[in-house]
Specification:
The protein is 40% helix and 16% strand. With 343 residues, the protein is of the alpha/beta class. Helix 5 (155-169) packs parallel to helix 6 and helix 9 packs antiparallel against helix 11. Mean pLDDT is 89; it is low at 1-28 and 36-43.
Length: 343
């Protein structure tokens, strides 16, 4: 994994919050630097006067790291002189308000927010700061506060997309296990509901042996869950996971138990670089691309647009996911190489 020097900003020092960017679960995802960049022309406010505060959900999470890398990539590609700062909420929703307060004091024009979870209630908080002149664009989650814009992929749709592919490929009377994330987490529950609805309708012969929750999408905890399943069940035909990281952990555990992963089926969501490499290697069966580059592109565009036009109506951009299989894996790997995630 490429080591990136992290510049610790004064804002983080004031708040006493760690801003370091790490990636514990992926060797191909790089860590975004906590950085500033200062633009070109045009609009009600010149781009070289714009300051954007970017709040990451948790930079120890591979998808959050990928998303923040793509935010940096899009600022540098399209708005090289816009000033921006990336800070890590470290998975703690209590930090969101503190960062917003400091952003208001430090004269930021707009916030690009990756919420800690889809279940985090930010409506009143974001409306209060919008009333004070600091509006928010939410990425990776929908929002319905009436003042904040949002760019997101539909969670349930991603679940039904991967489940439809699994329904076509799982063997007759397949025995599968389902890995979910933190209990009651919106994105995990919606994806899992998509799995369950499709399998119940299209493949009633498929038996779900067990469903387990893994806190915070943690790959290492998923390894433990899969190790337990390997002890309990002689036959496991497939693992359906609510993200790529957890299913990659399941693959590792299955290998450690001397199971033939080439004969099993493994399904995830996100389209992480490591997941794509696993599909190329014939281990992971399929994933759904939640394209962080596309999400970052529209999020950054909306943030700059909002900074230039503070009274603009809130906008929503629902993006269309893409199924990833062995048939289009070369295209997915090229996408990751183009943006520097895979060297």
């Amino acid at each position: 994994m490429k080591k990136v020097l992290v510049c610790v900003l004064c804002l983080a020092l004031v708040l006493g919050v760690c801003v370091g960017c790490t990636n514990e679960a992926s060797q191909t995802e790089q860590s975004p630097s906590t950085s500033q960049s200062s633009a070109s022309s045009g609009g009600d406010k010149a781009k070289d006067d714009i300051k954007v505060l970017v709040l990451a959900k948790k930079l120890a999470d591979p998808f959050s790291t990928w998303l923040m890398n793509m935010v940096e990539y899009n600022f540098k590609q399209s708005y090289p002189n816009v000033q921006y700062t990336i800070l890590d909420q470290a998975g703690d929703p209590a930090t969101t308000e503190s960062f917003l307060e400091q952003g208001l004091l430090d004269g930021y024009d707009v916030v690009l927010l990756q919420k800690v979870s889809g279940s985090q209630d930010t409506d009143e908080l974001l409306k209060r700061f919008a009333d004070q002149g600091l509006r928010t664009v939410v990425v990776n989650n929908d929002v319905n506060d009436g003042v904040s814009s949002a760019v997101f992929f539909p969670e349930y749709t991603m679940g039904t997309m991967i489940a439809t592919y699994a329904a076509k490929n799982l063997p007759k009377d397949a025995k599968v296990c389902l890995i979910k994330s933190t209990p009651s987490l919106f994105s995990s529950e919606q994806r899992a509901k998509g799995y369950e609805d499709v399998l119940a309708k299209e493949r009633p012969d498929v038996e779900i042996l067990d469903t387990q929750n893994v806190q915070d999408w943690n790959k290492d905890l998923a390894i433990n869950v899969m190790s337990d399943w390997c002890q309990r069940f002689d036959t496991i035909d497939g693992i359906i996971s609510c993200n790529d990281g957890m299913v990659l952990g399941a693959i590792e555990a299955a290998k450690s138990d001397n199971r033939d992963v080439q004969k099993m089926q493994f399904y995830g969501i996100d389209g992480l670089a490591d997941g794509c490499l696993s599909i190329e290697a014939g281990e992971m069966t399929a994933s759904v691309l939640q394209n962080a580059e596309e999400m970052a592109k529209y999020g950054v565009e909306l943030a700059v647009k909002t900074a230039q036009n503070p009274d603009m109506p809130a906008e929503k951009k629902e993006l269309e996911p893409t199924l990833i299989t062995k048939d289009n894996i070369d295209e997915m790997l090229e996408m990751h190489r183009k943006t520097g995630i895979i060297k």
